[in-house]
Amino acid sequence: MGRLPSPGVAWYRKNLELPKSDSDKSIYLDIDGAMSYAMVWLNDQLVGGWPYGYASFRLDLTPYVNFGGPNQLAIRLDNPPHSSRWYPGGGLYRNVWLTKTNKVHIAQWGTYVTTPKVSAESAIVDLEVTVENNSKDSEEVTIENEIYELDEFGKPADKPVASFPEKSLRLPASERAKSHNSIQIESPKLWGPYPQQQPNRYLAVSKIILGGKTIDLYETKFGIRSLDFDSKRGLFVNGEHVYIQGVNQHHDLGALGAAFNTRAAKRQLELLREMGCNAIRMAHNPPASELLELCDRMGFLVVNEIFDCWERKKTPLDFHLIFPDWSEPDLRAFIRRDRNHPSNIMWSVGNEVGEQYTGNAGAAVAQRLHDIVKEEDPTRPTAASFNYAKPHMPITAVMDTVSLNYQGEGIRNAPAYAHLKGINTAPMYPQFHDTFPQKLILSSENGAAVSSRGEYLFPVAKGISAPVAEGAGGNGKHGYVSSYELYTAPFGSSADKVLGSLARHPFVAGGFIWSGWDYLGEPTPYYLSRSSYFGVIDLAGFKKDRFYLYQAAWRPDHPMVHILPHWNWPDRKGKTTPVHVFTSGDEVELFLNGESLGRKRKAQNEYRLRWDNVAYTPGTLEAIAYKNGKRWANSTVTTTGPASQIHLQADRSVITADGRDLSFITVELRDANNQLVPDANTPLSFTISGPGEIVATDNGDPSNLVSFTSHERTAFNGLCLVIVKAKPGHPGEIRIQAKAEGFGTSETIIRSQ
Questions:
Q1: How many domains in the chain?
Q2: Where is the DUF4982 domain (predicted)?
Q3: Is residue 550 over pLDDT 90?
Q4: What is the pLDDT of residues 687-731, one digit of tens each?
Q5: Of 352, 485, 589, 668, which residue is the catalytic one?
Q6: Do 183 and 61 share a structural domain?
Q7: What is the Cα 382 distance to its own chain's centre?
Q8: b/e string for 65-77 if b means 16 or more Cβ within 10 A?
């Protein structure tokens, strides 16, 4: 778990008062996420619980409520040790709601919107509404449904664009019933992935009318879009080919831990979008609902995943212990909660499960899960990601799609990996494509490259991909991995190798990098660190060099050129110091102190240009990129002076005074010429005044074990991060100051409102 174990028992208690006038209502507790084995009591009576820490669930409190008097709600959580391969967090880390309804009401997750026919001219919208009758009498109700357009912020228009015909529904006592309705919308505004398409959305407003009175109103956001999964050409959204440029994301938010925060999640997505990412695989569990809402709004495609293991364990006390009993309710709840999100394009029911090794028995488990998905939502394909199973094995035939982790590119099949033990495979895309010619193939995990931002170790690997080892891209003593972005976990591949492999197999729909951001736990390759090294972006949100390699490939129309390493090497004068360049252009000329080191052109499926024999001389490197023979972009890297000043830059200078909104402040160490000093590792301290609070600090160094809540942090290669929130209900000016010995004090101002 990355030096952050979170086992143990926790109790939450809350006093509630519900008036006697509510005695004819239904009272529910809706828990979005509780880690884990939740048990709930009300007034000393056991209400129920749910073991899976990532599940969202509802409990009926009504029979236990003392209306008009005091009530005590108690929740017990129990995190077993050795229950996860990554940092799971602990406690009530997502929202908890008290929900009050009439006895007759729309059920939890009680609407289901589908769009079976979609074109630019018109679309059919089907709406299923499940109504629940908790009263002792049968009732006959009327259901009214209207559709409104939503703006980019999720606000509905004043008038509906469509109204469904009214439907009558007879509800027996203590039972549920479903209403089905359909309508055609002319000239619909379609939802699609940004920036290729626009993420337009609609709102369905469902009303339950009883005795001429509206007794329930339920809102459902959705999008109108079509999906086509073509085995030869990939994914089509609204009839247009969309190549999947995705990343895998774990559920933690770095220094904030596992507790969900909307602003922090949006910042992650904003940086990924800047790189050219258009898709997220939720690794390997249901995400917070708010994250899917962000993906809907921002136009990200989502592969929604629920389980990391089935009946065969990965850690001694993980979900395998209860999988036989709980996998079905978990899976049904997961799909019902998330099936109206237009961003959600696929259901993944497993990741690298042990059942890959168990032949027909494993295939039977897979078939059971696949069938449940199809019962709940036949509109999306199923997936389970394989890192071992081969085309001839029975489990691979079960799912609608072929999802491959690392096998597609080939595992340990490059010369630099020949000495490693373990499974070795050639690229498996062709074999799966030949065996399942009608199935879409997806690279559900690829890469597993590792690096520490701003650390460059010598010598540099000659090939395009190499396993990290001591003295070969790795420094175990300090816990650093070279940022030349050539080094990987033993089973992985560099970005260069992955992108080249996908380009050579155009029938693959695209893929998901492991991983978008560094995450807590799984500290590969150095187990004593706090977090992973896999991210394209470090834990603090600072871009690694790999970010620009992917940006060059994924945003070919965006003029850019990026040079590495930095050019502060006082102990390497005259020594060979390789220079690598990433660009969206097709040629680059490199200059050192004004002297050309040659002009190079990218070959087909080549993603970096290399000058491997540069002798280090202080000064300035300049790269001038060309595209189609014309100047495209340029960039410089300069030898700096010593760090002498601190610069603070907030990503947002105005935040909401609600205790949840955040400002992320980047702290840079600069020289006298105002240049970032890329090798400065100076201890810093931070203070705050006004109606605000420093929530956390970080520097992106996986080996750094200083508490995230500390107000003292050493900059890592010139950078540090301070996360600030405002005190709820206290608007005003918040001053954040940074100090370092010999530097003086610098500050920035944030306003809360």
A1: 5
A2: 574-633
A3: yes
A4: 999 999 999 999 999 999 999 999 999 999 999 999 999 999 999
A5: 352
A6: no
A7: 19
A8: bebeeebebbbbb
Pair (372, 403) in one structural domain? yes
| Same-domain check for residues 417 and 273 | yes
CB 235 within 8 A of CB 400: no
* Separation in Å, CA 699 to CA 279, 452, 535, 687: 27, 11, 14, 17
The answer to whether residues 110 and 81 belong to one domain is: no
Same domain as 297, residue 255: yes
Reading the block at residue 354, the tokens are 């042990």
Task: Take residue 121 and report the two structure tokens written for it.
Answer: 């001219």
Strand order in the sheet with 473-475: 469-470, 473-475, 480-481
- Is 445 among the residues known to form the active site? yes
- Give 541's DSSP letter: S
User: How far apart, in whole angstroms, are the C-alpha atoms of residue 79 and residue 89?
Assistant: 9
Is pLDDT of 276 > 70?
A: yes
Which residue in 445, 455, 589, 622 is the catalytic one? 445
Q: Give the domain extent around 521.
A: 243-447+491-554
Tell me, yes or no, whether 460 lies in a domain: no
**Within-domain flag for 231:** no
Output the six-digit token pair for 379: 């509109």
Q: What is the Cα–Cα distance from 41 to 61, expressed in whole angstroms?
A: 9
CA dihedral 324, 325, 326, 327 (to 10 degrees): 30
Which of 638, 666, 695 lies at the terminal end of a domain, its last residue?
Answer: 638
Annotated active-site residue 595? The verdict is no
CA atoms within a 13 Å half-sphere pointing along the CA-CB vector of 204: 27
| Type of residue found at 421 | K
Entry pTM: 0.96
